[in-house]
Write a structure and sequence with these properties.
131 residues; mainly beta; three-stranded antiparallel β-sheet; 7 strands
């Protein structure tokens, strides 16, 4: 039997939306709105970036390496939700300043125990290439 955690249902919704990225006419602007992006923009978004905060208020962040450069990121893309754990793709700020793409995939993953998370923050929907 699958364990139910506070955030796993909303993260499942985000995961399904990302897998089925398409637009829907709705004015809902919450984390669980049934589409990615907004209906006034013609781009089809494929990612709803999220951040997580622990019970002590600290932001979860992890180190990454991208094209030989190391950094630390607290921005993630939901990849899989299983019981009280979520597997996340680590996103990094896009080093290419000539594009409107905010983040790039690091191709690195992390798993977070949702029982240790106190706050989930959804960031504006975006397009991440190669996800």
């Amino acid at each position: 039997m699958e364990k139910d955690c506070c955030f796993n249902n909303i993260l499942r919704v985000i995961d399904v939306l990302q897998r089925n990225a398409n637009l829907c006419e709705s004015l809902d602007e919450t984390c669980s709105r049934p589409f990615l992006g907004n209906f006034t923009v013609s781009d089809v978004y494929n990612t709803r970036p999220v951040t997580f905060y622990s019970k002590d208020g600290s932001l979860y962040s992890v180190p990454y390496t991208l094209n030989g450069t190391t950094g630390e990121s607290s921005i993630f893309r939901v990849e899989k939700v299983c019981d009280c754990c979520v597997t996340l793709l680590v996103l990094a700020p896009n080093p290419d300043t000539t594009t409107t793409r905010t983040y790039v995939s690091t191709n690195q993953y992390v798993t977070i125990n949702l029982e240790c998370v106190c706050v989930l923050q959804c960031l504006p929907d975006t397009i991440v290439d190669n996800v």
